[in-house]
Amino acid sequence: MLPLRRYIRKALILIMKKSLVFVFRIIGPPRVLRYGRQANVAILKAFGADVDEKSVTIHSPVVLHNASEGYGNLTIKERCRFNGNIFLDLRGRITLEKGVSLGPGVIIMTHNRYNFNAFLEERLAHTCGIKDVLIKEGAGIKAGALIVHGITIGKNAVVAGGAVVNRDVQDNCFVAGVPARLVKEIK
């Protein structure tokens, strides 16, 4: 009886994935992923994201901002984990290397504007624009952290919960605070 249940469950999941992808091909890519892990991965891949589908875990919801044309700016390598309530700005490229984990409520931004305020955008022009974000192998971004545009998080680095990362983080480092500062090197 157990193998039959497992077979039926797999068949139902496959039908659901195919149905969701079919519907979204007609109406366009969803802005919010709120389905099961396998369906979320299938939708990402269907709209251009480079995802290692066998070992990636994506818990819902995931908000994909600036993705009306698809998810081609998103790369998720093997063993990555999204722990829900994630916000990804896909105006620029976001690359998550092997083994990256994103805690609940993480925000990754790839662009910055001052709501079209001419005064601020003129005086702070060096902080405006679109810049890619790279999070290297094994990095852990904890709950509620904010990664701003143009940042590289190093290999095996840890960003504390609630931190605002506005500078690159070196390999094997633990950073915390607003703005994020080095707390200690991880040996």
Written description of the protein model:
The protein has three helices and 20 strands. With 187 residues, it is of the alpha/beta class. The chain has a single domain, classed as Hexapeptide repeat proteins (UDP N-Acetylglucosamine Acyltransferase, domain 1), CATH 2.160.10. The strands form four sheets. The protein has a seven-stranded mixed sheet. A six-stranded mixed sheet has the order 1-4-7-10-15-18, with no helix packed on it. A hairpin with a 4-residue loop joins strand 19 (173-176) and strand 20. Helix 1 packs parallel to helix 2. The longest helix has 26 residues, at 2-27. The N and C termini lie far apart (50 Å). 30% of the residues are buried.
Shape annotation? globular
Which H/E pattern describes the elements? HEHEEEEEEEEEEHEEEEEEEEE
Trace the largest sheet across and list its strands: 3-6-9-14-17-19-20
The top level CATH class name: Mainly Beta
Question: Summarize this, please?
Answer:
With 187 residues, the chain is α/β, with parallel strands linked by helices. 22% of the residues lie in helices and 29% in strands. The longest helix is centred in the N-terminal third of the chain and has 26 residues.
